[in-house]
Amino acid sequence: MAIHSIYERRSIRKFQKEDVPIEILNKILDAGRVAPSAKNRQPWKYIVFGNEQKKEFLKAMESGLQREEKGFTDLPESQYGIPDARNTLRIMQEAPIIIAVMNTNGKSPFLPIGNDERITEICDSLSIGASVENMLLAAEEMGLGALWIANTCFAYKELTAYLNTEEQLVCAVAIGYAGENPRQRPRKKFHEIVEYRL
Phi/psi of residue 71, each to 5°? Predict the structure, then answer.
């Protein structure tokens, strides 16, 4: 039941070495494919990495983190996040599958865009967020763990160069059999976030 998966899903940061069967992986990806989409643009594209290809992808991320650590940064106000990005890289190395999630309509976030393009980008990001959440819930339902990763931003140039694309890299998703069973992290109380105007 989907509502059960919503409440039971956790962000997994430790994975077992066991491979994910391609049939299960395809079901997870297909759950992402059927997500709601602004103007039905369906801007998502998934690039799936495992084994040696995953190692090569993560070498590009390592290179980006090293550049950031040396101070050659496009995100000067976000440098506090580098230690967390280092930990994220370790998690990605442990997970058997990494999915790079692309916005096929988007461009680099480091390029200026006009107001209309910005609104389109926001709407497409909402659509991609729905797609990723579908995949996370499908993974939970099929007995796998997953982690939604935004720390790819610190190695954006290196990762998109490795992918040989001008499409926008939005995030990555790590998938595998969970090696931990974490508690739910704190959430705001219902009354703190809901305002009725009926």
Answer: 95, 0
Contact yes or no for 91/13 (Cβ under 8 A): yes
Would you list the domain boundaries of the chain? 21-180
Asked whether the beta carbons of 92 and 174 are under 8 A apart, the reply is: yes
Please provide the DSSP assignment of 109-138 as one string.
TTS---HHHHHHHHHHHHHHHHHHHHHHHH
Distance CA 72, CA 76 (A): 9
What angle is formed at CA 134 by the lines to CA 167 and CA 101, rounded to 5 degrees?
15
Class of domain 21-180: alpha beta
Q: Give the dihedral of Cα atoms 75, 152, 136, 131; nearest 10 deg.
A: 80
Band the pLDDT of 195: cuts 50, 70, 90. very high
Residues in the chain: 198
pTM for this one? 0.95
Q: Each residue of 7-33: pLDDT tens digit? A: 999 999 999 999 999 999 999 999 999
The percentage of residues in the chain with a pLDDT greater than 70, rounded to a whole number, is 99
Average pLDDT, integer, range 91-107:
97
